[in-house]
Amino acid sequence: MQPSLEQLSQIIVFAGLETADKVKLQPYAHVQKYRKGEIVLHEGDRLPAKLYAVVSGSIQVTKIATTGKETILRGLSAGEIFAAPALLGNGISPATVTAEFDCEILTVQRDALLQAIQNQPEIALRMLIVFNTRIQQLHETVHGLVSERAIVRLARLIQYFATTSGTEISAQGKTLKIKLSYYRMARSIGITYEECVRLIKSLKSVVVYSRGGKIMILDSDKLEAIASGNLD
C-alpha cells in the first residue's frame, strides 16, 4: 500500500523534507507488513533498486558463516534505513533481514529518491552519515572479536542498547527498554549461549538478567570500567 505522509516523515533520512516533496515521493513508495519471525530479505537475494526503511516495529540483521554459525549484525527500529547494496552496491543482499516483531517496511524507488535528493541534497548527507556509522560499528565489532575478551564485548553491547533503545530509571538501577535474550547477546558478540549465561552470572553485581530478556544495570560506573577493559 502507498505510505501516508506521516509514515514518510518517520524515516530518519526524510526528516525535514517539505510536504510537497513527500507528496511527490508517495506514488513511488510502498509499505508492506511483516509478522514477527517473517523473512524480509534473504541473504543472497537480488534486490531491486530501492531504499528500504523500517516504518514501525523492528528488524534483525543476521549473517550465516560458512561453518553454519549465525551472527546477529544489528537490530534496527522504526525510522532506520537498511539494505545499502540496493542503492550503492551490487544489488545483492549481504545478510538476512527478519522481522523481530510485527513491522512495516517502506521501500522507495531509486529514481524517485534521486529526484528528491536533487531537491533536498541533505537526504544524501543523512544517508551517508547512517552508512558511515554502520561501517565504523562493523569495524569495532571485528576488532573486538579479534582482540578483546568476551566480557568486554558483552559490557559494550549492553551499553550500546542502553544508549540506542533507552532505559527506565528506578531506585534499583537502569532497566533497558529493549529485551535481550541470551541467544541474541551471544550471537551479537561471537560467543556460545552457555558462555553468555556464565558471563552474565559473573556480572551479577553490575547487571541483573531477568526472565524474558529484561536487563537492569545496577552499577553504570563498573559497567563502563569493564567496557573499557579494566577488569581488575
Characterize the structure shown.
The chain has 232 residues and is of the alpha+beta class. The protein has 2 domains: 5-144, Jelly Rolls; 149-227, Arc Repressor Mutant, subunit A. 41% of the residues lie in helices and 25% in strands. The strands form 3 sheets. It has a 4-stranded antiparallel sheet with strand order 1-8-3-6. A 4-stranded antiparallel sheet has the order 2-7-4-5. A hairpin with a 3-residue loop joins strand 11 and strand 12. The longest helix is centred in the middle third of the chain and has 26 residues, at 122-147. The mean pLDDT is 88.
* Estimated helix fraction: 40-55%
Task: Give the rounded overall mean pLDDT.
Answer: 88
Q: What is the SS-derived class?
A: alpha+beta
Q: Main beta sheet: strand number and arrangement?
A: 4 strands, antiparallel
CATH-defined fold name of the largest domain? Jelly Rolls
Radius of gyration: 19 Å
Please provide the ordered H/E string of secondary-structure elements: HHEEEEEEHEEHHHEEHHEEH
Strand content: 25-35%
The number of helices is 9
Give the name of the CATH superfamily of the largest domain: Jelly Rolls
* Order of neighbouring strands in the sheet with most strands: 1-8-3-6
**Number of DSSP E strands:** 12
> What is the quaternary state of this protein?
single chain
Which blocks of ≥5 consecutive residues have pLDDT under 50? none
Global morphology? elongated
How many separate structural domains?
2
State the end-to-end CA separation. Answer: 56 Å
- Under the CATH scheme, the architecture of the largest domain is Sandwich
